Amino acid sequence: VKNSPSVETITEFEDIHFCVHDPVVSAENVKHPRLREATSALDALRGADVLMILTPWAEYKAVEVDKIARAMRNNVLIDPYKVIDQSAAAAAGLEYHTLGVAANLSQANR
User: Fold this and answer.
1) Checking DSSP bridges between strand 50-52 and strand 18-20, what pairing results, if any?
2) Rounded Cα–Cα distance for residues 4 and 13 (Å)
3) Burial of 102 (0-12, 13-18, 19+ CB in 10 A)
4) pTM above 0.90, yes or no
5) Distances (CA, A) of 104 to 27, 76, 78, 86, 101
6) pLDDT tens for each residue of 48-101
7) CA-CA distance, 60 to 55, in Å (whole number)?
């Protein structure tokens, strides 16, 4: 967890509620007043406004994009590691953001 970009990102936003998941590393050492650790990737994003994929685990590539979209309250996906296929995200109605690629602003009503 030391020097993790995900931990640095989370700690920058003290007023935001975070639900986190990592298949390998526990969040018990992350100091944040509004942090909850989920038991699965889908559990972490239930009712979420934004999904940030900040660790490129293979497990996250296996999650069906339609299930991601249905579980979320809003449709913003921030994926700097390009874990999720941009075309699949757009087809599922997700507003996909990654590094070095123009944003796909979905027209889906959510």
Assistant:
1) unpaired
2) 15
3) exposed
4) no
5) 31, 10, 11, 8, 9
6) 999 999 989 999 999 999 999 999 999 999 999 999 999 999 999 999 999 887
7) 9
